[in-house]
Amino acid sequence: MMQQVIEVTGLTKEFKNITAVNDLSFSVQEGDVYGFLGQNGAGKSTTIRMLLTLITPTKGNIELFGMPLHSYRREILQQVGAVIEKPDVYKYLSAYENLKLFARLSGVKVTEQKLMQQLDMVGLAARAKDKVQTYSQGMKQRLGIAIALVHDPKLIILDEPTNGLDPQGIADIRNLILHLSREMKKTIVVSSHLLSEIEQVATKVLIIDQGKKIIEGESAELFDPAQTIVELTTVDNVFSLRQLEESRWQQNLQPKRGDVLLLKLDRKLIPQLHRDLVNMNIEVLSLQPRHSLEDYFLQVTSGNQHVDAFTN
Amino acid sequence: MMKKTGKIILFLFAMQASIMLNAQDMNVLVQKVKAKLDLVDDYVADGKMKTDVAFIKAPIGKIKIFFKKPNLFKIKRDNGISILPKGGVSVNMSSVIAMKDYVALSAGETIVDGTKTRIVKLLPMNENSEIILTTMYIDETNLLIRKAITTTKENGTYEMQLYYGAYANYGLPDKVIFTFNTKDYKMPKGITLEFEDGDKPTEADKLRGRKGKVEITYSSYIINKGIDIAVFK
Amino acid sequence: MWTLLQIELYKIFRRPRTYIAFVAITALITIVQLGLKVDGKEYAAFVMADLSNTLQIDGKIINGYFVCYVLLQLLLVHVPLLIALIAADMISGEANMGTLRLLITKPISRTQFILAKFFAATIYTILLLIWLAILALFLSMWIFGTDDMFLLKNNYAVQIENADIFWRYGGAFCFAALAMTAVAALGFFLSQFAENSIGPIVATMSIIVFFTILSTMSIPIFNTIKPYLFTTHMVAWKEFFDVKVNAGNETIRGTIQRPDRIINSTLILLAHIVFFVGASLYVFKKKDVLS
User: Fold this and answer.
1) Per-residue pLDDT for C87 more than 90?
2) Nearest to A90 among C11, C108, C109 (CB)
3) Which of A216, A290, B68, B132 could make an SS bond with B72 (beta carbons 3.0 to 4.6 A apart)?
C-alpha cells in the first residue's frame, strides 16, 4: 500500500498585511512526482518553506511520513532533501568541502569515495576541488542537488530547480528528476511557474494562486490532450444553460465562470456540440476550445477564479 | 655719650668672642664626629628599603648600599624599581660632614628618641653650595648623629633620623628614616589612559600629610673590604 | 552539538575575513613594541614627568609587563570592533550568502544551531585573545625583559613586584575574554535582525563606541546609567593591577585592592551574555527564514 508522504490540511500563513497561503490542503503519495504549479508570488515557495520548517504556519497541520512535522522535525528532516530556489553554498569552499560539510550536518558518515560518487552523479567530479565561486549557475544548481541527495533521502523537494538555467541545464534537471523517480523510487515535490516543466515530469499537479488551491489532480487527466474545456458565450446564457441541462450535454457542464459557460469534453465531440447548439436554438456568440492546460492555467491564475474543473 | 658707645662696643666684642668660642666648640664636636665616621673607608650593606609616599603603593625591596670615602654613595635594588626622593638619598652623614668651609653653631640641646643631643647648625661659607643649611642633632656622649635636617637649593628640605645598634662604634646606623616633601599627585587621563573616575588614596594616607618617607633597615655591613669604583657609575 | 561546533569553527577559519583581526592585532602590537623599544626611555620620562619633580624612580620601568599593560589599555578598546566583524556576521552572513535556508532544513534543532554558532564565535574570541596574550605579554617579556610594574593611576601610583605580576595577567586575560564574549554576544544578537552583515557589524560597533563614551565621560547625568553599561565593566581587568597596602603603606603581595569590583563586573558581563544569547535563541526559534 502506498504510504502518504505528505499530508497538509488547512495550511495558512499570514505576514503582516498579506495572506501568502490560505487554507491550503493537499497530499503526496509515496512515489509521486508532485508538481506544484503557480505564478510567481502564488505561495509555492512559502508552502515549501513551511514543509521544511523554515517558516512557521499561522494555522494548519503538516504531516510527513505520517508524523506531525513540528513534533518530529529531526526524524523527518533526516528523510528529506531540498533545493530551495537558487541553491547557495559556501563560495570560499570547494564543491567537495561543501558536500562533506552538509553531509555531516545531515548526520551521515561519508567517505571520500561516496562524496566523489555523488559529485560524479551530478557531473561535478572533475571540478570537485575547485572553489564554488568559480562555478556557473548550472554547476551550483547541480551541487545543490548533490547536497540534497547526499544522505539518501526518501523525499526530495525542489523549489524552482530550473531557474536561471540554460536549455541544456533544464533538460539535465528534468532527466535527473525522472531518474530519481523511476530508478531510485524517490518521492519528489517540484515547484515551478512554468507549466511546460511540470507537464513533462509530474504525476500529480497542484495549481496554486494567491495562496489558494485552484486545481489538484492526476497529470494524466489534467494534461490529456484529448480532453478540452470549451468556453461558450451565448446571447441568452440563462436560456442556453437551461437547454444544456436538459440535453445529453448535462454531464459535461462545469460551473460557470462569469458570463461564460464551460463544458469539459473530448475534443472529437466539438462538431457534435456545434450541431446540437444550433438545434437547441442557442444563439452562440463564441465557442472557444482550450487545447491544453496551459491556456487555462494562465487564464485561471491571472483571473483569480476558483474552478474545480478537473476534479471529480 | 662716650661711655655708652664703649659699652656697646664691648658688648659686641663679647658677643663676637662668644660666637667665635661657640663656633670653635662646635667645630671641635663636628670634627670628632667626622673622625669617628672616617674610620670607615667603605662599606657594603644589605638592607631593606621601604618607600612610604601618600600617593604611591610600593613594596619593600631588598637593597644593597655601597659607600666609599669621601662621598660616593649608591643604593642598588636587587631587582625591581626603587623610588627615592629627587637627588637620590644620601643616607649617609659622611657626605654632609664632608662639606668644607662651613660655620658650625650650637643651637641648644634637645631630646631625640630619648637621647640628649646637641643641636648644631652647619652654615656653608660657599655661596654656590647646594646645601643652604644643615641642622644636626648630635649625641655628644657617643658621637653619633641622631637626626639631621638639611635644606637644599634644588631639592627642598629633607630630614634624616638615624637609629644605631651593633655598628654604632663605626657611626653606622641600623635604621634610617629619610623624610622629604612631596607635591600633590594628579595625572592627566591622557597619560594614564584611565578614563573612569579614579579611587582616592585612603584616609590613612591622607592623614600622613604630604611628606614622603624612605626607611632603610640595615641587616649587615661589610666594612673596609674595598669597593670597585665602577659600582658607583 | 560537537559536530555542529566543529563545522562552525571550520567555516570561520576557512574564511579569509577571519584573519583580518589577527593581522590587525599583530601589526598594532609590533608597532607599539617597536616604538617603545626605540623610544622607551623618552616615553618613560614623559609619563613620569610629573613624579620626577620630587622623586627619582630607578629601574627598568619599560619592561615586558609594563608594555603589555600599555598594549592592553590601547587594544581592549579596539578589539571589540574586530570581534564584531565575526560575531555580527554569524547569522546575517549565512542569510546573505543564502546558506541559512539550507542549514535550517538539516536535521538539527534551531537551539543547537544557535548555541553552536555562539560557542564558535566565543572560541574565536578566546583564540584572538590568546594571540593577543602571546604577542602583548610573552613577546613583550622576551623583548623587554621583566621587572616590577610601576603604574600610574589617576590619583596614585602602584608598584607591583615582579614575582607578583604574572598571575594577575592570567586573571586579566580571563576577564578580558569574558568582556569580549559579551561583545560577541551583542554582535551575535544583532545578527539575527539583518540579511547582510554590514548592518549588525556597524550597529555593534556604534553601540560599543556610544556606550564607551557614556562610560568614560564624567558627567553627572550619565552616572546613573553607567553601572548598567557593559562597557563600564569591560575595563575591570585593570583591578587586577592594584594592590592592597597595610597600615605601614607597604603593598601586600598577592592581593587585589578591589576584588569586589572584579566579581561585580564579572557577574554583570555574564548577565549580559546570558541575556543576549537567550534573546538570540528566542528570536531565532520564532524567525521565519525568508532569505
Assistant:
1) yes
2) C11
3) B68
